[in-house]
Structures are given as C-alpha cells and as structure tokens.
Amino acid sequence: MVNIAVLGFGTVGSGVVDVIEQNEKSIRRRVNEEIVVKYILDIRDFEDSPYKHLLTKNIDDILEDKEVSIVVEVMGGKEYAYTYTKRALLSGKHVVTSNKELVATHGAELLAIAQGKNVNYLFEASVGGGIPIIRPLNQCLAANEISEIYGILNGTTNYILTQMIKHGQRFEDALKDAQEKGYAERNPEADVEGHDACRKIAILSSLSFGFQVDAEKIHTEGITKITLQDVAYAEEIGSVIKLLGIGKKVGEKVFARVSPVIIPREHPLAGVENVFNAILVKGNAIGDVMFYGQGAGKMPTASAVVADIIDIVRNIDRNNRVMWDVSEEEVLVDIAQTNTAYFVRVKTEDKGAVFEQVNKNFKGCSFISIEDESVQDEVAFITPEKQEKELQQVLNDINNMPCVSTIYNVIRVMKE
Amino acid sequence: MVNIAVLGFGTVGSGVVDVIEQNEKSIRRRVNEEIVVKYILDIRDFEDSPYKHLLTKNIDDILEDKEVSIVVEVMGGKEYAYTYTKRALLSGKHVVTSNKELVATHGAELLAIAQGKNVNYLFEASVGGGIPIIRPLNQCLAANEISEIYGILNGTTNYILTQMIKHGQRFEDALKDAQEKGYAERNPEADVEGHDACRKIAILSSLSFGFQVDAEKIHTEGITKITLQDVAYAEEIGSVIKLLGIGKKVGEKVFARVSPVIIPREHPLAGVENVFNAILVKGNAIGDVMFYGQGAGKMPTASAVVADIIDIVRNIDRNNRVMWDVSEEEVLVDIAQTNTAYFVRVKTEDKGAVFEQVNKNFKGCSFISIEDESVQDEVAFITPEKQEKELQQVLNDINNMPCVSTIYNVIRVMKE
Questions:
Q1: Any CB–CB contact under 8 A between A124 and chain B?
Q2: B200 carries an active-site annotation
Q3: Mutation choice for B interface testing from A118, A140, A298 by most B CBs within 10 A
Q4: How far is B35 from chain A (nearest CA, A)?
Q5: ipTM of the complex
Q6: How many CA atoms lie within 13 A of B129 on its CB side?
Q7: pLDDT in tens, B189-238
Q8: Closest C-alpha among B258, B68, B32 to residue B157
Q9: Distance (Å, rounded) from C-alpha A122 to C-alpha B290?
Q10: Which pTM does this prediction carry?
C-alpha cells in the first residue's frame, strides 16, 4: 500500500482523487500496490464531500506522517507551493506536481533537492495537460540529442485563433466565447499575453537542453494584436497564424521565444485546432516527433498527475536522474541576433509610393493583397529572412517614410 | 558498465551501434553507466567494419557470457529470433527488440518468461519506428482505461496514398516511386496488403487491452485496389483515403481491423503525409492523444531501441510488469457484427436505374459525383452506418441488379 497526500482540492486535485478511484483496475495492472489517498490539504471545508474525513488544513499532519510517501502538489501558485514542496522533498517524500509556474521558476533547485534525497520530483502535468511529453522527453528520447522543441502550448489562445480563422470571429468576440465556454479565465492575461506558453517552453527547454532557462527572460508576445485582416493575409499565402513557443539549441546556448507565427497549412501544427495542444521535438536520430492532445482540463491533467504517481510507485526507492543545471552565464541567445522573416502591414494613403520605396530599399520583399474593403488603405508584405536587429531597422525606416502613416502589425513567418 | 550484445548487424543493428556511440553524452546524462557493445552476432563477415572484433557467429558466446546483461534482437524473422530471445530471457538477460512479427506472435509468452525471470522484454521500436508509443501506453497512460487505439501504422502505404492524393500518381506508379526511394521493398506485399500494419495493431491492441490479439485473425485489407477515382470521390466530400489499423474495446472483447478508410480532412490523421505515422489513443481520463513521427528508417528505429536499452539500464534489477494474457476464449469481435458505412462505386450502363433502385431499397444513401471522363459509366454513393453483415447483403443485392455490371470498389467511411 502506498499512501499519498493531495495538496489542493480544486479542479485538478479532485480530478486526481477521481482518476485513482475510477481506474483502480487499470492502475493495479501496472503496479502491484494499492494507492490510497490518506490526506487532502485545503483551507476550505468541503462539508458535503465524500472525502471530508481526509481533509486537513495543517501541512505538518502530512509531512510528519511517515506513512505518506508521495505528496501531490496541485494547489498552484509559487509561495505555499514552493515551501511545501521543498519541505516534502527534504523530509524524503516524492512530489508530483502540475504547477508549471513553480517548475519553471524553481525547477533546478527542487530537482537537485530530490536527487540529494533519492526521491523524485515529477511534473508531467505541468506541460500539455494530459499529453505525455515530459516522460517521453526523458526516457523515449534519451537516445537523442534534442536540437529543437516547439509547439502550440496554450489551449485558450489556440481556441481563440481557431475561432478567428475558421469562423471569422474577431479577437474580442472569440475571447468572450472562450470565457463563456470556460476555456479562458475571467482575467485572460496569462493566456492571451503568452505567459502561460512561456512558462511551458521554459520547462521544455530546460529539460531538453539541460540547463535552467528562465521564463522571465524569454521574449514573449501574445495574440491580442492579431486581427481578422492578419488572418486573411495568412490565408492568402496558404498559411495560418498560431501562437508558438519555441526552444532551440544554438551552439552552447538556447534560443527561446513565444510569439504568433504564420505557418504553412501543410505544417503538422497548422491542423491543431481548438483547445488542442501539440509539441514537436527534433532529435538527431529520431527526426521529427509530435505529441498531440488536450492541453488542459480536469481529467486530462489529473491523468498525467496519476501517471507520475504510478511511475513513482514503480520506482519508489530511486531517483530518476532528471535534472537541469543553473548556468552562471547567460544561456539565452539575444533575440535581436536571431534570424526570422516578418509579415508587415502598413497604413498608407499612397500605396504606390510604399511599394516603390520598399522595393527599392529592402530587396526580396514579397507583397500580398487580399480582396477586402477594410484593407484599402494598406500595403502588406513579407520580408526575406534576416536578423531581427536588421528587420527592426527596416521597420524603423518604413515607419519614417512620409507615405506611411502607421505600422498596423508585424508577425513572424516560418519559412522552410 | 553495462555490456550489451546486438543480434543482427543489418540496418537497425548498425544504427543502434551508431546511436550509442554518437549520443554517448546525452545518454550519460540519463544513466550513470557506460553502455558497451560487447558482441555483434551476424552470419556475415563485415571485413571492413570498425566493429569487426566484436562480431561472432555463435549465439552461445553471448548467452554464456555472464557480463552481457542486455541482448538487442534486431535480426527480424520468427525462427532464430524466437529461439534466441527465449534462450536469452531464460538465461536471465534482458531483451530489446524491433521485431514486430515476433512480438505480435509470441509476445504473451516472451513477456511471461521475462516476468518469471525478473528481466524485461521491451519492444518500443516494433511499432511506429522512433515514435514513442509503447512506453507512453504503459506508463503515461497507465492512469487511463484505454477504449480505442488507431492510426496510420505503415509509412510505405502512407507515402503511396499521399502521392496518389497530392500528385495524382496511380497506385502502380506511386509504388514504383516508393521502391526507387527505398520506402518500399522489392516485394511490397507485407506493406501494401496491410500485413505490417496488422502486426502493429495486434501489438498495440494486446498492450492496450491486456490480452493477446492474434494478428492472423485480424480482418486485413491493403491499398492495392485504391484508384485515383476513389481518391477524387473522397476529395469531393472533403475527405482523404488512409490505411488505418484500428483496435477498440467492445465490452470484454476487442474489435480490430486494418483497411483503407475515407476520413474527413479535419481529422488529425488526415494531415499525416508521406512516410510519417501517427497513432491516436482514446483514454477515459485523457481524451484523445496523438503520437506522430517517422514510422521507420534506420536512425529513428535505432533511437527507439536505444531508449529501451537506457530504460533497462535504469531498471536493471526489476521487471516492468508489462504483460498480456492469452485468453482461452475468442477475444476478437466478428467484423460482420460491427458497424460501419461503405463508400460504393458501381459500374452501370443505366445510371438512372441504379439511382432509383438504390434509393428505393437502401434508405439514407448519399450519392457523390465528380467531373471526370473516366467515371462516366458509374454511380458512387455512401451508405448509412450499419452492421457489416447487412451492408454485405446490400452489396449482394446491388450486384444482382440487372442495371449493375460490376462493383468497382468498396471503402469504409469514418463518420463522426
């Protein structure tokens, strides 16, 4: 019998308890042990819950109970979660979490403590909800040097973009729709500004490349500026706009970024719609591998947490050697030094002049036009692939042209 | 130090040796052990190989060497591979394989022997080449009751179908093209007749549902009868034709089938092109999860084999509890009892009569027409979803109509 304690009886926490109960048979087929929820920590009371007798408000009940070998931290946030996780690991208990913020910020430290205590700190549910990605990265892909990992890491923004692309909803309406369906929070900032995707790509990059990539330092743009006109231009060139998190090995450093990207319809990520997530991994032996599924939701996330619990039960006496280092030097490449292509839309009252000047000064731009009344006073084009620094200079110059009144939007373009 | 022996120095075998050498650093990050290839068994000589000193023709050299703890069987076939695998397991050595034929046929027995000897029999590379699917099924999805697993399991046929769909190549030409590119064998039967996909769905079903599903009993159809006309009709209804392997839990039994299926373009499998494979898993907690990647090839397959080796090195002292039972009763559902819809194309000199009679006798059929000279003497339609038994009866009746000269083709249609 293995006793576990669940910290936080919210959506994921109650899902974990449900999955353990519902799938008991399937779990027993994999581990010859009964998994028992001995405590649930929450400051709330849950008078009507069938698990009322398991509830405690005191973390010490759990940490001092030698019978509890696994602590499931699904409370979220960084403060209590951090303290409790650290104390649990230091007292020799395994910890399983879905808390991406905590892993992205304190992952290196917590993993090192776990290794020192010969226990595990597992976080499959922190990225991609129920999609198995962390464990495949560690195990199945252990035989590969990973050169790049990128994908659609946030279901809310992917739902909004899908509504814009497929149903012509404006951003604001699609967001409202997502909120009504429960896909977006009332305060949607963490999703639509890209912060959630940023934490996930920080975790994936740290794991893939072996050293801590700080989320706060990753260049992050959200989707709030994307309009239906942008979507239409992308469609015109056989592409769609997706919010991508990208991590890439560049020499001994890492390039990481979260931003909308215009990608060709043929790209495997282009067909990933609604709240689905997908993560593409490039390995030197394996080539491209993609993992696809529901990136959030009570049961998918809970099932990933329970998979981690099962993994620990099967390896209760050993650390899994998952770690990443904290580098003293800056590990991130300056985004200004990296190459990309821009899609640019400028407002002008003299299209001819813009055409002429862009053509004259910036070789290799290709112009796009769509039939839409709302874009009558604008010119849109895609730049060749250049360093971001140079492209920013190009944008400055364009902005300074007398015939240009404003730059509507700039979106990166994936060229392959 | 962990010593391994590689049985078979063909494409995959030499890839395994390469991956272990090339990715030594990445491997050492995961396992604190050196992995050393001590023997390579092959009947050939390889005079010029840098690994010449490791070669042996005598399996006893390997089985009697107590220092060898892992045997990598990548020789293929069922006879020697079976004998050697069994002897290796019985002598207490772990075995890793890419041999789908052997796993599909003798999996239950070999896994039971492995469990009895407290060693592992791992076969990640047997399905989906480098795509991590077996381990996620076992571990990441352990928290789920799996209700269905299906996908594109054969790269050769997917390449051929992609050529037909995207480039208008006829089956014969696309096959020749695949052979020239090295994607298809000179004798392509195992691929194009669906046998390879059949073995893989047998393995996936056995693993997902917990009892041996015999490949020989699975209803299997290949793609040799698919024509460009079929492809055009599918396109007309916004669909594509894919060769799918399907395993599904039906009560206490399993429904399994390999056949071409017309699937909607929006389906995640529709965009899986060329030699890529993709496998969709439905779990009760996780929802739909898809795994995508190169389903074959030297390095992807070798990387899956090496991932298994690493897994064993990390768990050298224990069995992983992967097993499936051999059921005394028939586990497969009779395909005649299962529901599906058919796309039917009949040759006729009197289209009007066929329309009329089909409409009159078989309620709910929808007719499709395409603009193509080659289909002037035919009628095509999709039946409603019914038991295969009933549909076969419908086909008989259609075939017996005086106005119908022949049934060109029948392809199953995925309705959702």
A1: yes
A2: yes
A3: A140
A4: 12
A5: 0.90
A6: 28
A7: 999 999 999 999 999 999 999 989 999 999 999 999 999 999 999 999 99
A8: B258
A9: 22
A10: 0.93
